[in-house]
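Extended Data, panel c. Modelled sequence:
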Amino acid sequence: MTLETDIHDARVALAATFRWATRLGFHEGICNHFSLMIPGRDDLFLINAHGTHWSQITASSLMLLDGDGKIVEGEGRVEDTALYIHWRVHRALPHARCVLHTHMPYATALTSLEDQRLHMTNQNCVRFHDRIVYDNDYNGLALDNDEGDRIAAALGTRDVMFMGNHGLLVVGRSLANTWDDLYYLERACENQVLAMSTGLPLREIPTQLVEATKNQILSDASYGESHLAAIQQVLDQEEPGYRS
């Protein structure tokens, strides 16, 4: 495949996740950002332009940036906090081929607590066992390289960050599986918030069973691919304009 084809296919798939995130209420105004490295390249990534509502994002509206954070293709600009978080995380962490940052309601609710931990209380939670970093050093808006680099360093080799008093950052090696993680993370957080609302004790799953179930869930990467493919099938029928 050519670079042009790779970029086009990445644009279409990433646009689909924005549209679906809107349906799920993962978006917040015109804020928050998804970014994706072009397959086979370490110097090109896609990200949403400032001011475009996620429900209106199309493949062609996404911005293409280079390894220095400069715009290669696209009209408009990239919002500053998006640049300093996504560009610096992509630059620092080889496993962060895809970077998804949201203020999803239930996950963000947990980051607003003194104890923001995700407890291993249900099947959706266990997939994230030993994959989460809890960042308690909220520094306001990420408006410089130092803050982006601090976030990247704090994330390290893990792929989920609970950003205290802020939101969520989920990274991964492919869009499909990173999206799958983002989806199930919000479902896990929703379950925990609802369970906590009862005022009754949480029932933790034994650690040995947590480890075994996590390995079962993550052993087949095709689930993420199938999830994204199913989303695109629905969008192709109901709002195919995302591909334009």
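The chain has eight helices and eight strands. This feature is highlighted in the accompanying rendering.
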